[in-house]
Design goal:
Blueprint (H helix, E strand, L loop, with lengths): L2 E4 L7 E5 L2 H10 L7 E5 L5 E9 L2 E10 L9 E6 L5 H11 L4 E6 L9 H22 L6 E2 L3 E2 H6 L6 E4 L17 E5 L7 H9 L3 E3 L8 H16 L3
Parallel strand pairs: 1-3, 6-7, 6-11, 7-8, 7-9, 10-11, 10-12
Antiparallel strand pairs: 2-5, 3-4, 4-5
Helix pairs in contact: 2-3, 2-6
Length: 240
């Protein structure tokens, strides 16, 4: 496979550009690409640019070969509203959600979230998750990088309002994904933390007109539920 890289600035379609230091290090030192190897660059604004790697001393350049209007985005606008999960679970969730075509991720602080983030620590973690989203786009072929929003409290998120449907996953809910109509606007998927949503959080979701949805008779882990729902929705109405 031809190596793909996210370029942090708007890309010209032709000519030659110098690769940023981190990108150059990854290409030449980690992947061990050589002079003349093909590569693909994308800047997150749609499409991709083919190129050839050029090495000059410690610097790396790409000789660009034209823009290709390739889109691999899902026809569904799916937003994962994920309660903070502990350890490296959030890394896993964001990586796989991007691979499954999510349009954005909204991390929320829930009452039972083991992980607690605020201030500078939250900002650093968000930047880390954004880099995971970029890497997942490089791997999966996506040319538009999903947004990873700053951490918000659940009620803060609910107060923003939303034109499209918001689904809150609850093992005892009566609705099933297959019984819902195909979304016209962006659909938000609310996934609870390891201990599940608290009763007052579920009540707040109902007050905000969220639709309670179950994912079968089994209780899924927080790192499984959102990804299973994304895959199911892609099968129902997306590009699976």
């Amino acid at each position: 496979m031809i190596s793909r890289f996210f370029f942090p600035d708007p890309l010209p379609h032709t000519g030659e550009i110098q690769l940023p230091e981190a990108l150059a290090h990854h290409a030449s030192r980690v992947l061990r690409l050589r002079e003349g190897d093909p590569l693909v660059l994308f800047d997150g604004h749609g499409g991709e640019v083919s190129g050839i790697l050029c090495l000059r001393g410690k610097s790396c350049f790409a000789e660009l070969g034209g823009h290709h209007a390739v889109e691999r985005e899902s026809p569904l606008q799916l937003v994962l509203v994920q309660a903070l999960a502990s350890g490296d679970k959030m890394d896993w969730i964001i990586q796989k959600a991007v691979e499954l075509g999510v349009a954005a991720v909204v991390p929320v602080q829930a009452e039972r979230s083991v992980l607690r983030l605020s201030g500078e620590r939250a900002a650093k973690r968000i930047e880390h998750w954004r880099q995971i989203a970029v890497s997942a786009c490089e791997q999966s072929g996506r040319n538009r990088v999903p947004t990873v929003e700053p951490v918000a409290g659940l009620r803060e998120y609910l107060a923003r309002g939303h034109a499209g449907p918001r689904l809150v996953f609850d093992p005892v809910a009566g609705h099933r994904l297959a019984s819902l109509p195909r979304p016209v606007d962006a659909m938000h998927l609310l996934v609870g933390p390891e201990g599940g949503w608290a009763e007052d959080e579920l009540a707040a979701c109902r007050t905000a007109a969220c639709i309670g949805v179950g994912l079968g008779p089994r209780v899924l882990r927080t790192e499984t539920a959102g990804l299973a729902a994304l895959a199911a929705l892609q099968t129902l109405w997306g590009d699976f």
